[in-house]
Amino acid sequence: MNDTKDRYVTVLWEARAKTGREAEMKAFMTAAVTPSRNDLGNIDYEAHEVEGQPGTFIIYERWENREALDRHLNAPRMHKLVPRLLELMEGSIEEGIRILQPFRPAQ
Predict the structure, then answer these.
(1) Which of 14, 48, 69, 83 could disulfide-pair with 96, CB 3.0 to 4.6 Å?
(2) In whole angstroms, what is the distance from residue 11 CA to residue 7 CA?
(3) What is the pTM of this model?
């Protein structure tokens, strides 16, 4: 991973609800969005459901820098959310995380 210490960090997180738990997971994620938006260093935090794939969710988030993202991930409330989230979703949280590195063409 490139050093993003002083640059914004974009995260895409994709998760799939367990069969029959789609609405429950959507409600859970909806409740978790606002507190994350209020975390120090958050630029953008949006939850989405994939069109045509009920129960498949993507969270798009941008942070001022890696430090802000790490603070968010290590917030006490996040540690409380994880067990409940694992009850609702297939697989692991880590499987769905993609950290994107910004780049621009040379001028």
Answers:
(1) 14
(2) 13
(3) 0.85
